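Continuing the series of single-chain predictions for the mutant panel. This is the parent chain; the variants come on the following pages.
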Amino acid sequence: MSLFKRLFNAVRSGSVSNEQWDDIRSNLISADLGVKLVDQVIAEAKSAKPENAQQSITYVIKQWLSSKDRAIAKNSDRVSTILVVGVNGTGKTTSTAKLANLIKNEKNTVLLAAADTFRAAAVDQLQTWASRIDIEVVSGAANGDPAAVAFSAITKAKSENYNYLLVDTAGRLHTKENLMQELGKVIRVIEKQSPVDEILLVLDATTGQNGINQAKVFIEAAGVTGFILTKLDGSAKGGVGLAIEKEFGLPIKFIGTGEQISDLAPFDPEQYIASLFD
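Parent structure:
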């Protein structure tokens, strides 16, 4: 059942008991909408006429979504550089490869940088994906300096006139200070040669409020421009998309929809909202 279906069924019945409202509230909170937003939705539902409830709530939640551009940055006169950030386990490295594939399929040249040097599996994983889609990867020594990989990659991307450079960054999150230092150094090294156009944060939708806490740290540590949300659907944990955009005002740019290399799609707000209702 979709996220708001139970709510609308109750409202349309014309009579909702306090016990039912409590049950609906608990259901929406468990779907990672967040307590504050749940209370706003229920207040709107209670005040609306039964026949107008869906229209009223649709209007409210549309205001929660980011108004910022969801298109990926693209420059016609230089390389467009995208950093992909996030903690280990969110699907960061896989999402980097999927995004590279999507961009390549739009007739662009793409170079990958394996700057998650502290996790050997991440480098191997990125190289495996890249070989399948015929994209070159710049890598460095195991446990080496991520900024050194970033330097080599941006140098190559500029000299060989690539359209895009995608950098898979370190996924460690020991402390915010540690994260800021690592990401800050990578960004500074790149920006000495070319601007960083996007910093995309990968979040696992099923982690709910923990994902929102991760987002707070990364947004403070780096200039995040948007999100890649993995494992997002319109039912069990679908509310987290609304919660993230309302909290930070930044757009979800892509969603991971499966395990295959092609399973990454631009986020469609209208389709997402429809999935919450129907």
